[in-house]
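User: Please run a holo structure prediction.
Assistant: Happy to. Please share the sequence and the ligand.
User: Here you go; the ligand is fe (iii) ion.
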Amino acid sequence: MHNRRNVVEIVSTHIVREGGGFRVRRPYRMGRVMSPFLLIDEMGPVDYGPGEALGAPWHPHRGFETVTYLLDGRMRHEDSAGNSGELNPGDVQWMTAGRGIIHCEEPHEDFLKTGGRTHGFQIWVNLPAAHKMMDPRYQEVPSSASPTVEKNGVWARVIAGECMGVTSSIDTVIPITLIHVKMESGSRLIQSFEPQLNGMIYMFGGEVNISDELRVNSQSRIPGLGTRQVIRDGELALLSEGNEIVIECNSSSEFLILAGPELNEPIARHGPFVMNTREEIIQAFTDYQNGTFAN
Ligand code: FE
């Protein structure tokens, strides 16, 4: 039995400055509405001249995971645990901050010199209360080792979860789907979902139509949405429950498919810390000031 997912709400995006001042596009509404994701930031696209590229200097995180996926540009990272590395187009860094990590995310020095285009994503994945203070860990998947699949005009990189029979190697704390999809005009993707997970689509190029063959040219059953089942560039679409979605494309399009469980826990957030209570946030600041944060 296929229970089709539909769009139940469209969240539009706006452009803000983050970190050292770099441009990000993010949904207007965040937090519980897109559980378990706390933040979906599209970095750029922005074209830097020589010496202009920006990053995020040293800062801490506690209580969640940061996923960085680069489409264009070249970044360098370093952290308090002694890890360092670089990110190039197609590379994924899945960092579980857990009880604490202090890191910097900057343009690579060669890229800073030459300038060029930076585009990518940073997504914050919340951790359930029971795992917020877990040991920090890194998973890095270079573009060359990242599972991709292409069928009938649909290309996908499977960062987490499964798409068109291809599965990611990333080990996630809670079940997460994160897929980068490009569709050619006239193509169609049937994506399955675990029915208990929240599902959403973030569109960053072109537009798609969500098909529900059970809804025969009729009014949408969803109050406030009219008959609209179109997702356009710069929109986050929140999806109904169901075990699959049918995505159709009349022009080329590019988007992320995201899914994860409803955590149903209080969110206490201050800057780079995301915990469940105010006391835990104060503790994070105290630990950071005492220098016991990332030991
Ligand atoms: Fe960070």
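Residues 7-261 form a domain with the Jelly Rolls fold (CATH 2.60.120.10).
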